[in-house]
Structure formats: C-alpha cells, structure tokens
Design a protein that fits this description.
Radius of gyration: 16 Å
Largest sheet: 7 strands, mixed
Shape: globular
Strand order of the largest sheet: 2-1-3-4-5-6-7
Length: 193
C-alpha cells in the first residue's frame, strides 16, 4: 500500500488490522507529496495505491484459504469507503480535463495477472455504503479471484489478453450494464477493446 505523506498512516489501521495474518508480507510505504501531473487523469498515480502481488494468490492464499480472501475484500472495500469523500481537483484547458469523474482519482488498485500484465482497477466514486459502488467492489473481488483461479470464461480471457495497455497498464472498471469488470479506454471512456 503506497500513499502520499499527507495521508496519516493511522488512516490505514483498520485495513492493516483486517488483512494482517501470519506469513503475509503487508508493506505500507509513504511517498513524497505529489505535484501537478499532466496526462490522462485515469493513468495518473493516485494518492493511495494498493498493489496486490501475484505471490498472494500463488502461495499465501493457498495456505490461508478463503477466509483471508474475504478479509482482503473487506479491507479493499473499507479503503474505498474511507476515501470516497476525498476530492481531487482536475485542472485543464477546455475539453482536456473532465469534470465528470466516475472513478476515484485518490484510490486505485493494481495487480498483475499470471502472464505478468499490469492492471489498474478504477475504484468507483460514491458515498460510503453506496449500493452501486458496493456492487462494483464485490464484482472486482470476484473478478480478481477468477483471474488467479482460472475462473474467467474464454471471452473474458480473450478481452483481457487483447486489451491495450497505456503506459504499460491496462485500465479496468466495473461496467454496470454487463455487471462485469472490463477494460476501459482512458480517452473515449468506452468499455471493451
């Protein structure tokens, strides 16, 4: 878990308590304050970035079982609820920066698939306990588990394999119309490839 130094470490106490377990290498790392960025807003680093390493699924989870994955999903959702009210100011020339931000520019989740491709899940905005955001976070938890246990159907695997990477990262978001986690284009905001 990497976060900017403006965020007090105590903010993560609940997350640490929820997910800590013997044998889990949970690292919290503060980084210097971010300065203004230029680029596509969904590709810019967020104030809090959770990285879920392949080793969690390939080794640790097998030892700890489904109970720990339920704890991880609860921790991920708890962070979303905690940071749901944080607003990030986007400044740009007309037509370059969108005032409509359906995804948090403060909290995001990264992971690599078994093939080594890096993904960034765009965490939905919405108040703490928002039903639509909860649905999206539940779908992401199920999706992430399916990525590692081979539970994705052939169509999903194909879409992920062909999804374009921007700056080495494939953007993913919850598509409410399909109820699935899908690649999303950072400029057109269109799901799919």
């Amino acid at each position: 878990l990497i976060y900017t130094e403006e965020v007090p470490a105590a903010v993560f106490n609940d997350f640490v308590e929820t997910v800590s377990a013997p044998g889990l290498n949970l690292v919290l790392e503060s980084r210097e304050r971010d300065w203004p960025f230029a680029g596509m807003e969904w590709l810019i680093p967020t104030g809090v970035m959770l990285f879920i390493a392949q080793g969690y699924f390939n080794g640790f989870l097998g030892e700890m079982g489904k109970d720990h994955y339920a704890a991880l999903k609860a921790g991920i959702k708890g962070l979303r609820d905690r940071f749901s009210a944080v607003q990030v100011t986007v400044v740009g020339t007309p037509g370059k920066a969108s005032a409509d931000q359906p995804y948090s520019l403060f909290y995001s989740i990264y992971f690599e698939d078994p093939a080594g491709r890096r993904f960034k899940f765009l965490v939905p905005n919405g108040e703490a306990g928002d039903a639509d955001a909860e649905r999206a976070m539940d779908a992401f938890g199920d999706f992430l588990e399916a990525v590692y246990n081979g539970g994705l159907d052939a169509g999903q695997r194909d879409v992920l394999a062909r999804a374009p990477a921007y700056g080495g990262t494939v953007l993913l978001a919850f598509n409410a119309a399909t109820g699935r986690i899908e690649p999303i284009h950072p400029m057109t905001r269109v799901f799919g490839i």
